[in-house]
């Protein structure tokens, strides 16, 4: 996993044998065990790393009015019971524009106003709730609503 992992050597002397993984990948999910041997014996601990990912298809940045699909996946083993989506902190109701099904959110005609932070919240059969956020960028046209622009010959037109 090098160079994505690190251990703070100075912290080891104080009994802190933490492992840092950056950036975390989906395949990093699983159980990690640390063992420290000293004069008094061997001490160990285990921690499970769960990973949640939010992806967009087609990949970001998305072009305005082109359909997109946000997907939320987790390494959690229980059955998925409910998925809730939030845009900039506000719940997203299901409509003709936004359709949610099994950890995915379909946006039929994304507008520039749909850019920003999208969060998914997954609730599992064991009542575990896991969430993640994705910063969605949408490219669009910031021009006049009328597609015809007139400019005088010899001048500049934007």
From TrEMBL:
Coiled coil: none annotated. SUPFAM superfamilies: Immunoglobulin. One of its GO terms (molecular function) is MHC class II protein binding. It is found in: Cell membrane; Secreted. Residues 50-131 form the Ig-like domain. SMART domains: IG. It comes from the Eukaryota. The keyword Transmembrane helix applies. PROSITE patterns: IG_LIKE. InterPro entries: Ig-like_dom (IPR007110), Ig-like_dom_sf (IPR036179), Ig-like_fold (IPR013783), Ig_sub (IPR003599). May function as a ligand for MHC class II (MHC-II) on antigen-presenting cells (APC), promoting APC activation/maturation and driving Th1 immune response. Lymphocyte activation gene 3 protein: Inhibitory receptor on antigen activated T-cells. Delivers inhibitory signals upon binding to ligands, such as FGL1. FGL1 constitutes a major ligand of LAG3 and is responsible for LAG3 T-cell inhibitory function. Following TCR engagement, LAG3 associates with CD3-TCR in the immunological synapse and directly inhibits T-cell activation. May inhibit antigen-specific T-cell activation in synergy with PDCD1/PD-1, possibly by acting as a coreceptor for PDCD1/PD-1. This is Lymphocyte activation gene 3 protein. The gene is Lag3.
């Amino acid at each position: 996993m090098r160079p994505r992992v690190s251990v703070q050597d100075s912290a080891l002397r104080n009994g802190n044998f933490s492992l840092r993984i950056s950036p975390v990948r989906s395949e990093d999910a699983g159980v990690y065990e640390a063992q420290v041997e000293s004069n008094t014996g061997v001490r160990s601990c285990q921690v499970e790393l769960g990973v949640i990912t939010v992806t967009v298809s087609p990949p970001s940045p998305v072009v305005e009015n082109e359909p997109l699909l946000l997907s939320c996946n987790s390494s959690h083993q229980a059955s998925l019971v409910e998925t809730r989506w939030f845009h900039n902190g506000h719940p997203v109701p299901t409509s003709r524009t936004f359709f949610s099904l099994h950890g995915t959110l379909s946006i039929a005609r994304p507008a520039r106003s749909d850019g920003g932070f999208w969060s998914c919240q997954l609730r599992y059969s064991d009542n575990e709730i896991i969430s993640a956020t994705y910063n969605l960028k949408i490219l669009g046209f910031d021009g006049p609503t009328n597609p015809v622009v007139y400019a005088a010959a010899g001048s500049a037109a934007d």
